[in-house]
Amino acid sequence: MIDAPDVEELNPPQRTLMGPGPSPVHPRVLKAMSTPLVGHLDPSFVEMMDETQELLRYVFQTDNEWTIPVSGTGSAAMEAAIGNLVEPGDTFLAPTNGYFGDRMAAMARRAGGDVVRVGAPWGEPLDPDDVADACEEFHPDVFGFVHAETSTGVKQPDVPALTEAAHDHGALVVADTVTSIGGVELKVDEWDIDAAYAGPQKCLSCPPGASPLTLNDRAMDKVLGREEPARSWYLDLSLLEGYWGDERAYHHTAPITNVYALREALRLVAEEGIEERWARHREMASALKAGVEAMGLGLNPEDDYWLPSLNAVLVPDGVDDGDVIDYVLEQYDLEIAAGLGDLSGDVFRVGCMGHGARPENVTLVVAALADAFDALGADVDAAAGLAATREALR
């Protein structure tokens, strides 16, 4: 007989989450998760499914009928989009300008696609002319791009130019909107995006577990017309259509509590107004940006493609990024993150997302960084940083 382990009552630390995700969860979302469970085919839950889909359409700014929360994290929604739209032998055009473009490429390969790349350095957006040239050379069946690259802090400008270049060559367009949905301008229909996926744990301030996905009629026609089924049974959208479509037929047990949470998070977006929410994120992130720039630091991307929801703050000379991250966690219970891939060691990734995009959190980040830099001997103007943040927040 194996003895039962002696595990203490759960008591996680109270952190202020200002990294690349998850973000602080709104109290109303936490409350929604504590409400009674019902069955995943219960009439009351079916009604909640309809409401969640309608709210998702608002946040994506789309009329797409096929708009659902995928049971899983943002990577599950990503794999659902790519794994259903990329058939064996299809050519998938993926970007090279960040960590999550590389993940797109990896998923397309696993789906049986032939992956080709369109290049841009880490920290820069894709050039629509380069996308058009790549489409002319490779004739991709599907083109994927990252709207808000979490690894570099870059927002892709002029999305319609990318989608036009791809559509001119007959390719479907898949957008990674994990770090943009609910935080920066996103217009799926107006920008002519065929499929977009996202995660709930960033600008929506919701725990991971039910992840937004939307596909237009062109994309769903390809899904439903595949010659062989998608390689993942769990994420096969032709099967999930039976549950999230009109039939509401059993496919799997949905993460009911996570759907509760997502529904409430989306209600908060609707109450605030999507354009007002985009503006709040920009205002709060602008105050953070003003503070770190006044200290003598900069952000990795240029202003033209700065991503307000994820700020890639340059690491000052003379300090180790890991030491700073450890310091603010230990002294302030504040979470920020290191750079990824090509930017590892060069930037801190500071989120300004959802319920975390508030004046008190922005002030805390700037003050904690100033203290950490001072304690670790970095040559920065901490007082100027704090003054600039206060002024920006007035």
UniProtKB/TrEMBL annotation:
Cited InterPro entries: Aminotrans_V_dom (IPR000192), PyrdxlP-dep_Trfase (IPR015424), PyrdxlP-dep_Trfase_major (IPR015421), PyrdxlP-dep_Trfase_small (IPR015422), SP_NH2Trfase/AEP_transaminase (IPR024169)
Q: Does the keyword Mitochondrion apply?
A: no
Keywords, ordered alphabetically:
Aminotransferase, Pyridoxal phosphate, Transferase
| Database matches in Pfam families | Aminotran_5
Needed cofactors: pyridoxal 5'-phosphate
Q: Which GO terms describe its molecular function?
A: transaminase activity
Name the domain of life. Answer: Archaea
Q: Which residues form the Aminotransferase class V domain?
A: 38-339
Family stated for the protein in its record: Belongs to the class-V pyridoxal-phosphate-dependent aminotransferase family.
Q: What is this protein called?
A: Pyridoxal-phosphate-dependent aminotransferase family protein
Q: What is the scientific name of the source organism?
A: Halobacterium litoreum
